[in-house]
């Protein structure tokens, strides 16, 4: 979690999240249940001890329901295999020894790979409870939030939240991840209204422009992962209506705390300004970008390229805008796409071409070559 200053105090947000292991919010309750049964546990043993607790509980849940699917949780087959393997060891000490070996070996066999992966998930559940949601103290004791969570009635289902838990987690998330969580809720509304397939570029552009947070622009391949986790939270808590509006009961919670209410008023205002001033231009750019890629590929198909390099004028003749506007577009296309795909420019031609060059980052260019998006 981090709070920055950018003309004003920036609301709280999580800098990083792990897909898929930060998705199931209810796993943090499991961590609290485990801690509540321990008088004292050393920090060095927390993940390992919780892992044994987790494997047993998940395995029982899978056995009780053969149709159970748990996104963000180790698979049925992996959990069963690990559980059966650990059961061959008589003592807890023996079990801990083979887990430690699986974690520390450079080369692992199949069962050791499953132990490593499922142990990793357990460690991220602890991180969610302790570092992200502050349900545990630095001494691995329940905080007031952890105690409050355990006092709330829960659902029997392993990951489904009760109504009380939904409100509880919503309050915690707007306390610790307000900026990105609530912003995503607002952009989900935009996504529905305009039927936008990929909202994350607009979403993080907004965060950059209005809150000065460029961190996500330099970690572009992680953006969709961050969104997937937060969207999972939104769905588990059921924050939005069918038209992706924030439900009235959650709006009341947002407005009930003076600081959060101020954050929300500022965020909603900034969002409105962004839509009015930037969104229309961005929509036009996204539409033009699709045309640009389509006509580039058309030139490739018609063999108008030289080793993949296509003359920008061959593309421009299909996009009827001025030289200046097209140059602005090509520059923006490069800046917007360069972290997602490999883009190359060339000013080399086989015969004299006296047409005016386009300028990208101060360099004269005439041809472009790019590859599909990096996965």
* Class by SSE composition: mainly alpha
Number of domains: 3
- The percentage helix is 55-70%
Low-confidence stretches: 1-7
Instruction: Summarize the biggest pleated sheet.
Output: 3 strands, antiparallel
Q: What sequence of helices (H) and strands (E) makes up the elements?
A: HHHHHHHHHHHHEHHEEEE
Beta-strand content bin = under 5%
What is the terminal separation in angstroms? 27 Å
Counting DSSP E segments of at least 2 residues, the number of strands comes to 5
Average pLDDT level:
90
> Radius of gyration in whole Å, from Cα?
26 Å
Q: What order do the strands of the largest sheet run in, or round the barrel if closed?
A: 1-5-2
Principal-axes geometry comes out as globular
The oligomerization state is single chain
- The number of helical segments is 14
Outline the structure in words.
- This protein has helices spanning 27-36, 43-64, 76-87, 92-104, 110-132, 144-151, 163-176, 178-194, 200-211, 223-237, 248-256, 258-301, 312-316, 323-337; strands at residues 310-311, 343-346, 358-360, 363-365, 367-370.
- By secondary structure, it is mainly alpha-helical.
- It folds into 3 domains: 1-11 and 161-282, no CATH class; 27-153, no CATH class; 303-370, no CATH class.
- A hairpin with a 2-residue loop joins strand 3 and strand 4.
- Helix 4 (92-104) packs across helix 5.
């Amino acid at each position: 979690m981090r709070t920055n200053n950018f003309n004003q105090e920036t609301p709280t947000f999580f800098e990083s999240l792990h897909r898929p292991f930060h998705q199931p919010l209810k796993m943090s309750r499991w961590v609290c249940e485990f801690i509540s049964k321990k008088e004292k546990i050393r920090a060095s043993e927390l993940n390992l001890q919780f892992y044994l607790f987790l494997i047993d509980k998940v395995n029982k849940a899978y056995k009780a329901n053969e149709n159970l699917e748990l996104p963000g949780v180790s698979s049925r087959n992996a959990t069963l295999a690990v559980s059966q393997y650990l059961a061959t060891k008589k003592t807890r000490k023996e079990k801990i020894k083979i887990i430690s070996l699986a974690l520390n070996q450079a080369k692992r066999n199949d069962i050791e790979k499953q132990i490593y992966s499922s142990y990793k998930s357990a460690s991220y559940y602890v991180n969610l409870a302790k570092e992200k949601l502050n349900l545990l103290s630095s001494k691995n004791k329940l905080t007031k939030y952890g105690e409050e969570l355990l006092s709330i009635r829960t659902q029997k289902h392993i990951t489904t939240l009760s109504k009380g838990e939904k409100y509880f987690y919503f309050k915690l998330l707007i306390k610790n991840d307000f900026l990105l969580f609530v912003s995503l809720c607002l952009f989900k509304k935009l996504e529905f209204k305009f039927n936008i397939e990929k909202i994350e570029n607009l979403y993080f552009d907004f965060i950059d422009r209005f809150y000065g947070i460029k961190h996500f622009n330099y970690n572009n391949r992680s953006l969709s992962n961050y969104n997937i986790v937060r969207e999972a939270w939104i769905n588990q808590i059921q924050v939005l209506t069918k038209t992706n509006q924030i439900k009235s009961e959650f709006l009341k919670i947002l407005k009930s705390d003076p600081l959060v209410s101020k954050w929300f008023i500022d965020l909603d205002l900034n969002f409105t300004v962004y839509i009015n001033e930037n969104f229309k231009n961005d929509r036009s750019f996204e539409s033009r970008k699709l045309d640009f890629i389509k006509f580039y590929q058309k030139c490739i198909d018609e063999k108008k390229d030289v080793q993949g390099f296509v003359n920008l004028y061959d593309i421009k003749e299909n996009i009827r805008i001025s030289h200046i506007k097209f140059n602005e577009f090509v520059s923006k296309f490069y800046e917007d796409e360069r972290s997602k795909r490999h883009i190359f420019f060339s000013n080399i031609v086989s015969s004299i071409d006296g047409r005016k060059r386009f300028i990208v980052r101060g360099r004269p260019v005439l041809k472009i070559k790019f590859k599909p998006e990096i996965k």
